[in-house]
UniProtKB/TrEMBL annotation:
It holds the Pfam family VWA. SMART domains: VWA. Keywords: Cell membrane, Membrane, Transmembrane, Transmembrane helix. This is VWA domain-containing protein.
Length: 268
């Protein structure tokens, strides 16, 4: 839909019919003693004289419309003042490579990337997306890394989510505490620079393991989040299949499945 920045300029359109009336009254003429001296048919030049007037009024209309400042919104209008500061913290440790199907084609990290992308942009079904949130991305294994600061450029965040890969052997591990603390620090830094113009700050942790690396205990990081007013929601991944020493894909025993939720519901 087209909008106008200065719509009051359209009041000048009233001038056009006034000019037409004025020019009609002031139109000149030549007196002839008899109509017989006039040519029986108007020449092509005479018949085309109205084009000059047509272009004059057309140019006047174009000038008025241009002065009104037309513009068109591209895409959906978003109100970021009503959104959350949403920090995503994604585990990419080696255990996230466990298969989730018997064919060994999809692992836990693949599912996380697909679910997170749908969560951000929506899936045209149950998920409506997070259009009004400022979203950041942190990935972690033995070390925690900021992939994207809190931003309204959701397409970039989704691209970075899809680019995540499993940690190599020399960087493998699960530093839950460090990752949580980094997420809280990023939120706090954003609030200090840009103000707290959002409804709240939320950190979502997606992991399949327990803390075994890093310098900070997860409970200490959780206490830091509580101190800063950041709500933490943990989604645990477990189950699936693994390839044993003989290359055979087997189901992970139920007693090895980690499924722990620290939250009861997503904030409305």
């Amino acid at each position: 839909m087209i909008h106008f920045d200065q719509p009051l300029w359209f009041l000048l359109l009233i001038v056009i019919p006034l000019l037409l009336i004025f020019r009609a009254k002031k139109r000149g003429g030549v007196l002839y003693p008899s109509l017989s001296v006039l040519p029986p048919v108007k020449s092509a030049r005479v018949r085309m004289l109205f084009i000059c007037d047509l272009f004059f009024y057309l140019a006047l209309v174009i000038f008025i419309v241009s002065a009104a400042g037309p513009y068109k919104n591209r895409g959906e209008s978003k109100d970021y003042t009503k959104g959350y500061l949403l920090q995503l913290v994604v585990d990419r440790s080696g255990s996230m490579g466990s298969y989730m199907d018997k064919k060994g084609e999809t692992n836990r990290l693949d599912i996380v990337k697909a679910v997170v992308a749908d969560f951000i942009s929506g899936d045209d079904s149950q998920l409506t997306g997070r259009p009004n949130d400022r979203i950041g991305l942190i990935s972690f294994a033995r070390y925690a890394d900021t992939m994207a600061p809190l931003t309204v450029s959701h397409d970039i965040v989704i691209d970075l989510v899809h680019s995540l890969s499993l940690a190599k052997e020399d960087e493998d591990g699960t530093s839950l505490g460090d990752a949580l603390a980094l997420g809280v620090a990023r939120i706090r830094s954003y609030q200090q620079k840009a103000g707290t113009g959002s409804s709240g700050a939320v950190l979502i942790l997606l992991t399949d393991g327990q803390n075994n690396s890093g310098n900070l205990d997860p409970l200490d990081a959780a206490a830091l989040a509580a101190q800063e007013g950041v709500r933490v929601y943990t989604i645990g991944f477990g189950g699936g299949f693994y390839r044993n020493a003989f290359g055979i894909i087997q189901e992970i025993p139920p007693n090895m499945v980690l499924m722990k939720r620290l939250s009861q519901k997503w904030p409305k």
